[in-house]
Amino acid sequence: MGRYLILGLCLYSLLLYVFFLYKWGFDVENPTFLPLVTNKDPLLPQNAIELETAADLARSTALDLELLLLQRFYISDFASMADRIVKFAVLAEATVSDKTVDESIIVSLLGSYFPWWLPDPSTYMPWHPRPKSDPYDTGIVICVGSRYKIYAMHLIRILRDVLQSKLPIEIAYDGDGDLSFADRRAFKALGHNIRLVNLEDHFDESVGSLRSGRFAIKPFSMLASRFRKVVMVDADTIFLQAPDQVFLTEPGLVETGTLFWHDRVIEAGTLHRHRWIESFLRGQDPSPFLSQTMFWTDNLAHQQDSAVVCMDKGRPRVFTSLLFSAWMNLKVVRDLVTYRNTYGDKETFWLAAELTQTPYYFNPWYASCLGILKTNDTVCGTQAGHRDHRGDLFWFNGAIRHNKYRNDLELVNMTHWMHGKRDSSEFNEWFIDSENAGATANMFCLRGDNLTAVASLGVWSEMQKMLRVAKEVDDIYFPIRRYQRSLGS
User: Fold this and answer.
1) Under 8 Å CB-to-CB from 331, ≥6 apart: which residues?
2) What's the predicted TM-score (pTM) here?
3) Which of 87, 360, 367, 474 could form a disulfide with 353 if both were Cys (CB 3.0 to 4.6 A apart)?
4) Alpha helix locations (H) across 46-129?
5) Residues 105, 62 contacting (CB under 8 angstroms)
6) Listed residue (354, 327, 360, 355) closest to 83, CA to CA
7) What percentage of the chain's residues is helix, strand, coil (to nearest 5)?
């Protein structure tokens, strides 16, 4: 009798456990587990929609996702998260390809899996097609907080007044504590077609904690945007060409719907990051692209400079990989996993695509150095330069200040450009300027054999205009007394 009683209690406990898993899913109090997608071969062929009707595929995939809500996994298991993102990509593709598929199915499942996302009617979704003439098809999203607001003002004035960019602009911020009402009014006064997007209206701050996450805001700003084709930009970025036609002129972006840029070529010193990524590959080789990058072959510290990221959210797999990147930047995930293995958000964009086998593209040149000639083969500066597909300078980060880490208003004086390399065969060596480290923190130097005088570049005259515009902004927002006080006088 006692044996049957014990058996009955065990069965009852098991049923109760399953009920609680189904009922509550993600336990905020114990956030080390999340819903699990277990599929040994989750990646359906690219022509999966041709193998059965889109409606049948949508129903079967949705059922899989519903059932898998009952299961959990450690948040450190990015591979399992990738499995479910792939399923969402399949469901999104089916929903987009067949208008008879009820879009409420994927909307409901997104709400179940990602309850921290609160999209509003203006948010772009790939299953909500827009006409080609839509004025908000392509746009710039600038991530701005109070700390770097002046750099974003430089950027906007340069885009509008120097480069004559016509693209609509969104200023993404996270609540009044991130960007004050007065600052928001100042941004609106900078020109036409500038919209402010408070990410607190789109995401649950208790889960995302974007204000304290610094880098984390970037993929969320892209998700929340009304634009289908997003040029996401750090506030301290400066374009040297208008980005208006980038989705038409960059071949890799046209082909894959993504465009990323490489960071500086600096060796990691350990294999920790590689081993961490390999743990998600489940014994499989990395993609042909990743396996040939210097990040992989030469064990670099960083792969991507995410100061500019271009993504076409109208492509379902690109859209869902962006969602995966945002998940990697949630507070609990970034604190316990992501940022312990990467420097902020920068690797999450390509890593999300890599783990879901979503095609992605990097500009082939690694970051170059814009600054002042220190010796005949070395340039030092805080600005990292990046090129377009032709090899011309396209943008740089590090602001238009001589050194954004110093408490002054000195504008940049870039006399030379030391080119970044494309592969290991080229001579190139980055190092920190130790002689001036105290006065000019983060002053990087690049030694190499491919040097160009900035005055010889076609963008030289535009750069002089940019400096004048930046000074105008400083004169408005930094009156003489504040300027003198910042210098300690």
Assistant:
1) 207, 208, 209, 212, 213, 216
2) 0.87
3) 360
4) 48-51, 54-68, 78-97, 104-113
5) yes
6) 355
7) 40, 20, 40
